[in-house]
Amino acid sequence: MLDVHRLTVLRSVVENGSLQGAATRLGFTPSAISQHIAALQRETGMPLVERHGRGIRPTEAGLLLTEHTRRIQDEIARAETALADLRAGKSQRLTIRYFATAGAVLVPPVVSRLGVLHPEVRVALRWGKGLSDSELADAEIMVLDETVRVPAGLRVLHLLDDPFVAVLPPEHPLAAQEVIELGQLRSERWVDNEWPSTRCRETMLKACGAAGFSPDFAVEAHDYAAAAGFVAAGLGVTLIPRLALAVVPTASVVCRPVIEPVPTRAIAVVVKAGTESQPPLSTLLGLLRHEAEKHG
Questions:
Q1: Which of 118, 157, 189, 208 is in Cβ range 3.0-4.6 Å of 280 for a Cys bridge?
Q2: Among 167, 211, 222, which residue's Cα sits nearest to residue 190?
Q3: Kind of pairing between the strands at 216-220 and 189-192
Q4: What is the DSSP secondary structure assignment for residue 280, as one 8-state letter?
Q5: pLDDT of 190 over the 90 cut
Q6: Which residue range or ranges hold the HTH lysR-type domain (predicted)?
Q7: CA gap 86, 29 in Å, rounded
Q8: What pLDDT, on the 0 to 100 scale, is given for residue 90?
Q9: What is the pLDDT of residues 95-153, one digit of tens each?
């Protein structure tokens, strides 16, 4: 395991460009700095710095470790601040990133209840559709499929499987059926409901492909509510995730379960590994699971 103290020394050497500069900054002797760098190079099995003129510059491995050291030290600083705030009884901050449907259906009641259970917690809500290497929220509520790469150090907690339903004009011949086979919609004009393409749209297209056809999109819409409006006007049919129906106007359309196959999106929450048992995040996760069960 890499020694954090030696990583700190490496970062100082790289940022100062010399052993002497790092020694002055850290309050060590140049000899001590040199010994730390030599020990770190033995640990990694790679040269981390090299002579350059009168100074020192990092190798590719040295640059890589220096960048990771910055992140490690930032995390340590945040942890120390959080502990100090907790010790002093100050408020904590919890950042939640969500996608549109989750923000409309799952998140509001959960955050409201969290405020009652943890009034000391300040919740920051951010909209987004994927993991960000530069800014990871405490809880990332997102749609996951086989194309999503979850970086090491993160844990995926499944919330629910959300099947798509067929949305039809009331006078449509298939509206009389209780369940619709997806292949029955192959000759229909379709209303696209997520453009540009998203994971949800790709799930819909993949299911249609499995049923032996590609949708003929006559209308391009950018959200489920607009798509439902076009369907109500008789301009086509569409598929909408069942969870979204809680906030999409459906009085003027007919919604039916779809089979063979059943297009389904998986909704999960992604957290940093090891944080899921720490309050108030553990409370948030419990509330999310409870709310998801209502819609599962």
A1: 118
A2: 167
A3: parallel
A4: T
A5: yes
A6: 2-59
A7: 37
A8: 58
A9: 999 999 999 999 999 999 999 999 989 899 999 866 765 568 899 999 998 888 888 88
Whether 180 and 248 share a structural domain: yes
CATH code of 11's domain = 1.10.10.10
Range of the domain at 189: 160-265
The number of folded domains in the chain is 3
Distance CA 94, CA 86 (A): 13
- CATH number, domain of 168, equals 3.40.190.10
Both structure tokens of 84 = 């100090």
User: Is 203 in the same domain as 59?
Assistant: no
Residues 281, 151 share a domain: yes
Do residues 192 and 245 share a domain? yes
pLDDT of residue 132: 60
Say what the pLDDT of residue 11 is: 92
Q: How far apart are CA 251 and CA 51, in angstroms?
A: 74
- Residues 199 and 213 occupy one common structural domain: yes
Residues 275 and 235 reside in one and the same domain? no
Place of tokens 């942890």: 79
- Four-point Cα dihedral 276, 278, 283, 285, nearest 10: -10
pLDDT in tens, 200-252: 999 999 999 999 999 999 999 989 999 999 999 999 999 999 999 999 999 99
Q: What is the tens place of the pLDDT at every residue in 155-164?
A: 999 999 999 9
Q: Are residues 181 and 51 in the same domain?
A: no
Rounded to two decimals, what is the model's pTM? 0.70
Strands 264-272 and 139-144: antiparallel
Q: What are the residues whose beta carbons fall under 8 Å from the beta carbon of 90, sequence distance 6 or more?
A: 120
